[in-house]
Amino acid sequence: MKKRFPRLSLIILAAIAAGCLACGCFATKDPAYMDLANSNVAPCRTFLFGTDAMGRDIFAMIWYGGRISLLIGFLATLISTAIAVLVGSISGYAPPWADGAVMRITDLVLSVPGLLLTVFLQAVLGGESCYRLAVVIGLTSWMSMAKVVRTEVLQLKNTDYVLAARCLGGGFFHILCRHLAPNFVASLLFMAVMNVRNAIVAESTLSFMGIGLPVEVVSWGSMLSLSENALLSRSWWMILIPGAFLVTTLFCLTNLGNYMRKSVNKRHSNL
Amino acid sequence: MRRRSLRKPYITIIEELIKFALSVFLLSVLVFTLARLAPGDPLYAYYGERVEKMSGQEQEAARERLGLDKPIPVQYMRWAKGAAHGDFGISYQYKRDVKEVIAGRIGNTLLLGGLGFVMIFILALFLGLFCAWREDKRADRVVCRIGTLTSCIPDFWLSLLLILVFSVWLGWLPSSGAYSVGAEKGFADRVRHLILPLAVVVLGHLWYYAYLVRNRLLEETRADYVLLARMKGLSGKQVLYRHCLRNVMPSYLSMMAIAFPHILGGTYVAETVFSYPGIGTLAYESARYQDYNLLMVVSLMTGILVILGNMFAKILNERIDPRMRLKREAQKEEVRGF
């Protein structure tokens, strides 16, 4: 199976990211300004993407909200990857009884309903800001990744070069950084990209359900939390436009992630 | 190496049962503590806004009546004692026995999740087979593209999109509830209300499993026995169905055993958007409004399903393919030896 580099996905992703970063230049309206005289306006020349039920300009909100959504995606992934690498490699490297204990705990956390965990963390941290929400998402999404790291470490730790490093007196973190991490970084990269995707999905779902960001903090998810009104007033632009940006970003990220996955088969089919 | 895998089967069963009981116990402790440590006042769930008008003394009395004034371990012991006798307490929000509240809704979730699971199970197999047969041809590529796209659409947005198109624009299907008011018994009405939520549940999971089937099958088609079977005169299709599919089935079955609780538990987004009266909406409400007793039962139900699913998958694997058990035991030995 050939794998072509997903050039188009990367370009679109870069364009969206650049638009979000540089939105001060072209999105001149204030995304938080509520122009109550012009609420629920369909897309037209002054309001390119229309306005929402509170009279905010959707064109500006898309770009400013994208900042928040993407930021949460990356921050949450950083946090969950860090935890996953630490837990996974400690568990894989430790003696079997400790490994078993850590894995049981991970399984236990996995079997607690994710919703409960999220609501709990939200309540403890008070998730009014996007940083706190990123922490919440990061803390609830490291488990499956930790398992992957653990299996990789289990395979790697019996190799001769790890043994040699241990004989020379290398400590745990030295071996982790110099010998183990470079070997599992490839399989981790795919999971990290997928985690960015999942974090963005989590942010938007939580905000939509009313347990993520409040309506005043503009993100792609919190924009969609007003969609119940939009359905009643048949304002399709409030639902379709933020959703289209969201799905496009996720789709491009997935394509990129799939490219990074180790290609399993290079041989031809025997069928 | 000792052949530990040749233990008597009943020992394995007892071992698994102990593990199961232990996991359920730990899970209940964890959920109990988490729920009570979270800030927020369960009195709000019981009395609503009236709490603010109550005096301090009245609040204390209400807390005492609901058994919320004791330290957490004492509360847990009390709950566990009740639970052992089948008494899970009352829901603060609905002011009825938790069992009643759940019994009124579990059928709806089982219908939605169960039907969704069956459809995913069958469709994923078909799609995977189709794509593997057409590997890298145009049909495969198109299906893969569309599949990846559907797997990228968040559940809640898909629900919104479907409501917008089929309820608001076309007006074909209802946008909320499990049945129309006044027509509780009609079968056709029930089906009409089920189509959109079911579509969300199925589309949300389908491609993940179909893609796994496809990749597993592709791995199989590269094995040497395929060449042999082709050489003795079987057609490609025959080899795919008779040999490759059969080799993929064990891992597919065990995967679906793990998937079952996920699909059943993943209905809550669809349930919320479509105001479908099921367990998912209950879970969401009880976690948000500190309805402790209800939360405990709902969490334990999903947790037990997850644990059972995992256990079932493992047993299934070892039943179908005894080598798996040997391998696991051997791995254990190897790790111990290190």
Structure overview:
Chain A is an all-alpha fold and 271 residues long. Chain A has a single domain (61-269), classed as MetI-like fold, CATH 1.10.3720.10. Helices cover 70% and strands 0% of the residues of chain A. In chain A, α3 packs parallel to α7 (143-156) and α5 (114-125) packs antiparallel against α6. By secondary structure, chain B is mostly helical. Chain B folds into 2 domains: 1-105 and 278-310, no CATH class; 106-250, MetI-like (MetI-like fold, Orthogonal Bundle). Chain B has 14 helices and no strands. The relative contact order of chain B is 0.13. The model of chain B is unreliable at 334-338 (pLDDT under 50). The interface between A and B is large, with 48 and 63 residues.
Helix count from the secondary structure assignment of chain A: 12
Number of domains of chain A: 1
Total tally of structural domains of chain B: 2
**Based on helices, strands and strand pairing, what is the structural class of chain B?**
mainly alpha
Strand content of chain A: under 5%
Secondary-structure blueprint:
The complex is a heterodimer of chains A (271) and B (338).
Chain A lengths: L6 H15 L1 H4 L31 H36 L2 H16 L2 H12 L4 H10 L3 H14 L3 H8 L4 H38 L10 H5 L2 H6 L3 H25 L11
Helix pairs in contact in A: 1-3, 1-12, 3-4, 3-6, 3-7, 3-9, 5-6, 7-9, 9-12
Chain B lengths: L8 H29 L4 H6 L8 H11 L5 H13 L13 H36 L4 H15 L2 H15 L17 H35 L2 H8 L4 H30 L2 H6 L5 H10 L3 H29 L1 H16 L1
Helix pairs in contact in B: 1-13, 5-6, 5-8, 5-10, 6-8, 7-8, 8-10, 10-13, 12-13, 13-14
